[in-house]
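sry for the spam today, last one i promise. struct tokens for design, 326 residues
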């Protein structure tokens, strides 16, 4: 039987230097029945023309141009035009090993699941390997969706869509939340009940290029990525969902909510810790309101609880001390 068509979606914005490497790695896949969709999200550096040139080199590449609206809107546009039975995603500054999609599809078939994921590594601009964000299993592992949600909330699971191959029928009509960062986590949590289970494969075949200045990486000390605020919003979404649909995970969801707010408070510039900053105010209020529950939570470490206590008492003072120590 002919292998099913896989659509690989690449959102593109002002990435002229790295896009050829990305696209070349996808075109060179051992799994060849691919549709590659490049969505130019209003590039202004010539990347838009580069997309058109790359499409002439491989008939499997389709290009769409749109006004700038962010990665989520670019991905949603591509999903609306995708023809593949399965869908994968690659960020335009990253690249993939030649056998990634062959291994992902083989995992879906062998374990009879709608989703397969594989490991990733991170490489900085100097070519140095960075510590793993998520450690892949040593052997293929089938994970029930409820257990996978717990792994995500414990920061052990991989929420990235770039490491996954997914049955296209699983995507809801309103897929990635537009205007938000940490959009992968938001959508994946919504999709988990329909997935039922997935297989996690060993090896690291997706390669993240750690580029300073991208959405979640600080270019200077006063830069505060809105990803931290979006992560807090996602924590609220999960707590509400768990309370209604998976009450057994309430303590894990609380742990996640506290942890995400600690990340927010440990990264926000002191200059933005003001009373007129509504997001900051809400974060501190949550830490104070949930202090007693946090101290009783068995999922939080002693260090988590110490920071929780300190930030509940004097957030700005603690942040200033932390800044001086760093």
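last one done:
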């Amino acid at each position: 039987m002919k292998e099913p068509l896989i659509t690989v979606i690449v959102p593109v914005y002002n990435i002229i230097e790295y896009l050829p490497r990305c696209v070349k790695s996808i075109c060179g896949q051992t799994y060849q029945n691919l549709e590659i969709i490049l969505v130019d999200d209003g590039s202004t550096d010539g990347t838009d023309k580069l997309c058109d040139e790359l499409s002439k080199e491989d008939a499997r590449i389709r290009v769409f141009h749109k006004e700038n609206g962010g990665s989520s809107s670019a991905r949603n546009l591509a999903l609306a035009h995708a023809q593949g039975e399965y869908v994968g995603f690659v960020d335009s500054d990253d690249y993939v090993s030649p056998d990634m999609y062959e291994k992902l599809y083989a995992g879906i078939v062998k374990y009879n699941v709608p989703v397969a994921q594989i490991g990733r590594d991170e490489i900085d601009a100097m070519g140095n390997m960075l510590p793993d964000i998520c450690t892949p299993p040593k052997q293929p592992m089938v994970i029930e969706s409820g257990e996978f949600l717990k792994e995500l909330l414990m920061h052990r699971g991989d929420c990235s869509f770039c490491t996954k191959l997914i049955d296209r029928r699983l995507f809801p009509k309103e897929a990635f939340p537009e205007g938000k960062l940490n959009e992968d986590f938001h959508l994946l949590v919504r999709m988990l009940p329909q997935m039922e289970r997935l297989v996690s494969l060993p090896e690291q075949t997706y390669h993240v290029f750690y580029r300073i200045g991208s959405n979640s990486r600080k270019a200077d000390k006063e830069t505060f990525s809105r990803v931290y605020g979006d992560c807090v919003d996602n924590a609220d979404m999960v707590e509400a969902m768990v309370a209604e649909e998976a009450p057994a995970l309430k303590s894990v969801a609380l742990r996640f909510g506290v942890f995400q707010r600690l990340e927010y408070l440990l990264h926000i510039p002191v200059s933005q810790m003001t009373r007129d900053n509504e997001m900051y105010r809400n974060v501190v209020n949550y830490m104070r309101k949930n202090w007693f529950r946090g101290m009783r939570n068995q999922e939080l470490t002693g260090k988590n609880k110490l920071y929780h206590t300190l930030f509940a008492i004097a957030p700005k003072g603690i942040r200033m001390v932390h800044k001086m120590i760093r």
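The mean pLDDT is 93. ok im logging off now
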